[in-house]
Amino acid sequence: MDVxxxxxxxxxxxxxxxxxxxxxxVDADVTFTDRDPDVAxxxxxxxxxxxxxxxxxxxxxxxxxxxxxxxxPEAVAAYAPxxxxxxxxxxxxxTAAVAAMRExxxxxxxxxxxxxxxxxxxxGNVACVVDESGSTVEAISAAIEAGGNAVxxxxxxxxxxxxxxxxxxxxxxxxxxxxxxxDVREEFHTPxxxxxxxxADTVTEGAPAVYxxxxxxxDGADDVxxxxxxxxxxxxxHFAALYERARGDRDPRDRHE
Length: 257
What we know:
The structure is a single chain. This protein is an alpha/beta fold and 257 residues long. It folds into two domains: 2-154, 3-Layer(aba) Sandwich (Rossmann fold); 158-254. It is built from ten helices and eight strands. It has an eight-stranded mixed beta sheet with strand order 3-2-1-4-5-6-7-8, sandwiched between helices. α5 (135-146) links the parallel β7 and β8. α3 (72-79) runs parallel beside α4 (95-104), α6 (156-180) packs across α7 (191-203) and α6 packs across α8 (208-217). The mean pLDDT is 94.
């Protein structure tokens, strides 16, 4: 399978490594293209892959878009004509991505994948919307699963709705906690604050631009801010009600004082 990976950052490199891994079941020849030729070369050289300038007119079995979420519709329009069998993306937003692929690649296989982890933490769960199946998309999904990942199917609407909570909301809550808190001696940390501190370290090890894209693409932060304000202004009775709501239906044995 001849694959053009558009975007040679961490996720684009993960795609190449996944499709090219021993046992993936895919005999993949990967070409990288990136708006920065040096980045494309840095990704290609250790993998024995090829590079192509963004303006090239080469065609490929599959085009995989590993670009920022906001760039996906434009990238689909630009690169879909160079795909012979399939167009897929790994951007992290699915509604606009799937719509763009339907518009610009109506006769091709189409799928949107979202690895729900940073590449240093592979393997993990990979959300997938298969908009038009076929042997190429099936091979890509199988290769991802062969890498130890769990590929699960969803819809674009369900995925993007979930990202409001698990990405935009979660990141906003963690960053707000880190920004609002004061430095304290290590001895003062509770199990909860220590866990939050570790999670905040994980969130802030990434690229700010990636997290900014998430906040721009998905609602969620405003709901977290509103909930924090409600907690801050609650009297004892209302706080208790909010606490019970947060507890939900979990088994009482899982509750800790």
